[in-house]
Task: structure prediction
Amino acid sequence: MSDIGNSNLLPVRMLTQYAYCKRLGYMEWVQGEFAYNADVVEGKYKHRNVDVPSGGKKLGENTEKIHARTVTLSDANLGMISKIDLLEIEGNTATPIEYKKGMTPKNENRTYEDHVTQVCAQGLLLRANGYTCNKGIVYYVGSKQRIEVDLDDAIVKKTLQMLDEIKRVAKNGPIPPPLVDSPKCARCSLVGICLPDETNLLSETEHIDKESVRRMYPIRNDAVPMHVQDQGSYISKHGDCLNVKKGETVTKVRLIDVSEITVFGNVQITTQAIREACNRDIPICYMTYGGWFIGMTAGMSHKNVELRMSQYKKHADAVASISIAREMVFAKIKNCMTMLRRNHPNPLSDKIDELDRLAQRCHRTKRYETLLGLEGMAARLYFSEFGGMIKSEHMEFDFAGRNRRPPTDPVNAIMSFLYAMLTRQAVTTVSMVGFDPYLGYLHRPKYGKPALALDIIEEFRPIVADSVCITLINNGEIAPSDIIKTKFGVNLTDNGRKIVIKAYERRMDTSIMHPLLGYSASYRRIMETQARLLSRHILGEITSYPAFRTR
Result:
């Protein structure tokens, strides 16, 4: 576990979060998680008048009362540091004033417990720095009211106990459990990271019905990936926008609308644009001209060292590692079966039954080599029937079997490109969650291979990549002219890649019901949810990894 609670001063803001929700405080302080939502942005805006530091200033001619904004105080003995919104000082008496964006609560104390904890902790810091502090003030911007909080012995004792508790939990763990059916969760910016209802559903400690699981994050993100593949294009930053220039043509894209940037081949991007992308946690992915994923630029790596330590420990445990791999292969085979049932005009029941038997055997095997053998057998069986899912009138897209590096026919060229797109998506997703993308459970570590990302996409290969490939061909969206054949293999043309990218993004934004969690979300959201559920399993909060399958 992290010893961050002892090695650094604890920000009072983190103590406040812990008082509001222990799990929230732990995730922000120990695991380094943070996310914006409307409430966070609104609160930051309403803080704007007190977020500009200022020195002491007398109020009027006949008073010695002084106001100072954004004052930072710390004390090594308390082990705390705080940025006080507004400080009133009169002689040796100081009063901290904390701004809150909402309305004054209508409870007995006319304030919230976590707000009391915050001003009390600030009062203790003032006392430690030689001031007299007997009260704090919470100012509710929404109702424009100052609520005084007397810092009596009971409040001080409770605050010090809370301080000792968060330090102890930060040092020794475990992560506090999620709240159960709490109204706090719906407004929390970390709800899509914490997954409180999902974790409670899958844990052994809390038993709730699937119908009670709330989807408390949007079905899909507002920001979407940006793909630039026109050779010779030039990406630069201009204000809050990215300009993509090709010759005289300039396309502007707002940075707020971009979730990641993917560049193909000879596409340039300025240092200023790279730096801004890193500041905004927008990964930049580099693909070859032909579509192979070769690398990524991102800001500082995720702070969740605890997750990576647990990831390495779980990988070293052969029994725990293969239990994760089994679920992934099982789900992949089940999703292959779903694809055949949905798209094959005459799905052979004996082939479906055989795939089902292989899937069931995955759950029983205890040897890694056997599991890989079962996956290989299922893949051969699935791809032996794959051509039957392509309509007979599209004979130019004949499929005789899976091949790659390089692909030797149009169908394999399309699938290879789609698998590369999925890999890129998974690398950015698992990195965002806090994983090391190069250490997996199904795919063994190998130099340069993002094994965990390849693990994650196994469940999505049939229902995303294969589905897009079949749809493009059967609907006539892609033509033989969008394929180029050379002595080095078969690849997509520029126009062909544009068509495939558009169809891929359309599929990733498609909403689908998660059969285990009972709510709908886009495939992109579900991939992130799966990565976060894997993290919950690795951190010991849920007993097994619940791989995604459509039915």
In short: The CA atoms of residues 477 and 499 lie 8 Å apart. Residues 1-6, 37-43, 57-63 have pLDDT under 50 and may be disordered. The longest strand covers residues 65-75. The chain has 18 helices and 19 strands.
